[in-house]
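FIELD: query
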Amino acid sequence: MKKYILTTTALLIVMIGAVYFVINKGNLLGTTRATSHVTVNKTEEAAAKTEMKKEFETATPKGKMPDYTNMSDNELIQEVHGMTHQKVKAEQKWGSSQITKDKVLKLYDVVKNKDFKDQNAKDMLLEILKPWTQGDFSNAVSAHNMIWEYQKGTIGKASRLLTASEEKDYIKQNF
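FIELD: result
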């Protein structure tokens, strides 16, 4: 009986260890699960970062600037949400709007001077857009998720910023 208990205990320990390994490190064949960390080629990433900065500074083509002054509160929120999709990794993305400096500046100015029905929505947009006016998109994940929560999203929460190479690919595919 004692031998049976020891054998069973040892087997349980091995099984628990195997489950822990699969959950935290990958499966027993050595593959790993997806993580929020992405390996990038430093040279390609540097070139893509330079290209993304240039892309941001490029003027929005004539006729492509949305008429933000005539947009509803919800349309402005959705515009910023669509812009975040260029910058973040999410399971699902619905809608997109390419980010350019002149669009961000115009959008910021319109939001700042517009009377919103929900002051919290206006404050949220200004908080998101302020650093964007300087080309700082480090808040894009939190920006996306603030809007996503505001819109009561259930699918597509942002998990991380895209690498510059991923963003470059996103722009090629969507704009």
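FIELD: remark
The CA atoms of residues 14 and 92 lie 38 Å apart.
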